[in-house]
Design a protein that fits this description.
Order of helices and strands: EHEEEEHEEEHEHEHEHH
CATH class: Alpha Beta
Shape: globular
CATH topology: Rossmann fold
Distance between the termini: 30 Å
Radius of gyration: 18 Å
Number of domains: 1
Strand content: 15-25%
CATH superfamily: Nucleoside phosphorylase domain
Number of strands: 11
Helix content: 25-40%
Number of helices: 7
Structural class: alpha/beta
Largest sheet: 11 strands, mixed
């Protein structure tokens, strides 16, 4: 369950279920054989997903990257009957603010472990009055309002221009929608997320501006995560949960209690956690074994990035 914030950005900070005891941490190999076979599905979530993996299935690995350390070690294990690699976006102690997350390291590490599809979760604010708090959304578009974040793997002498008209993998979104329908969950199948820098929440003027630009949701972490996955030809789908009406129009609708606060986000995330875990499980289970992500950039360009020497 991911953020619009963390301790201060409480849309990332969630009530933590009992944590399964991890196995001894070990360094991960990053050779081509490891990339092809370790974990085809990656999950990026907030601190409330500590108990995501099936009991006793977790094996913690440290993955060195060319971009520095990941938010935390990655746990390899089983979830919804599938082999997955799980990474808490803000670290296991929820200590990494949205603007300080090493997005390149996180995405590179998952790709180096053989991940072809990434499922992410986010707690978000609602900007569209037709999408009230408590709504789950599979967003299909992003408006980037961040600044200063390293948002490409191709910032050296190898220039690549990724086509990001559809930032979230359309095929993964279809699989996710079908899976959620099968289990009878209520959700909205599309929406536009405006991603702000954080860690502060929006002003009322900003919320009105985002709404007038066509944004439905507001969040702090979906960009550059989704763009970086696309640059490595890795598919990504996001499941967002609306916790509040941001600075939004709650007061105008006589619902001032829906304006964002840390206490409100904690309360609603805790209440939604059983549904969120069930929905993530359905999405993961519904990804076909033969899923092949889009090739948005040349294979050799991606291979060059993934063969870069880790630092540290």
């Amino acid at each position: 369950m991911t953020p619009k914030r963390e301790p201060a950005d409480t849309r990332s900070a969630q009530t933590e279920p009992a944590q399964t005891e991890p196995a001894q941490t070990e360094p991960a190999q990053t050779g081509s054989a490891q990339r092809e076979s370790t974990a085809p599905i990656g999950i990026i979530g907030g601190s409330g997903l500590y108990g995501l993996l099936d009991d006793g299935s977790g094996r913690s690995v440290t993955v060195p990257t060319p971009y520095g350390a990941t938010s935390s070690d990655i746990t390899l294990g089983t979830f919804a009957g599938r082999s997955v690699a799980f990474l808490p976006r803000h670290g296991t102690g929820h200590t990494v603010a949205p603007h300080r997350i090493n997005y390149r390291a996180n995405v590179w590490a998952l790709a180096s472990l053989g991940v072809k599809a990434i499922v992410t979760s986010s707690a978000v604010g609602g900007l569209n009055p037709e999408l009230p708090p408590g709504t789950f959304v599979l967003p299909d578009q992003v408006l980037d309002r961040t600044s200063g974040r390293s948002d490409t793997f191709y910032d050296g002498d190898r220039v690549q221009h990724v086509a990001l008209a559809d930032p979230y993998c359309p095929e993964l979104r279809r699989f996710a929608a079908a899976s959620l329908s099968i289990i009878g969950e209520s959700f909205v199948s599309r929406g536009t997320t405006v991603v702000i820098q954080g860690p502060r929440f929006s002003t009322r003027a900003e919320a009105a501006w985002f709404r007038s630009a066509g944004a439905d949701l507001v969040n702090m972490t979906q960009y550059p995560e989704v763009a970086l996955a696309a640059e490595l030809n890795v598919g990504l789908v996001n499941l967002s949960f609306i916790t509040d009406s941001d600075a939004g129009d709650g007061a105008a609708r006589g619902q001032a209690a829906d304006d964002v606060s840390a206490e409100l986000v904690f309360e609603r995330m805790a209440a939604a956690q059983p549904r969120l875990l069930a929905m993530l499980g359905a999405i993961v289970e519904g990804i076909p074994d033969d899923y092949a992500p889009r090739r948005l950039l040349p294979v050799d360009a991606v291979a060059a990035v993934l063969s870069a020497k880790p630092v540290g």
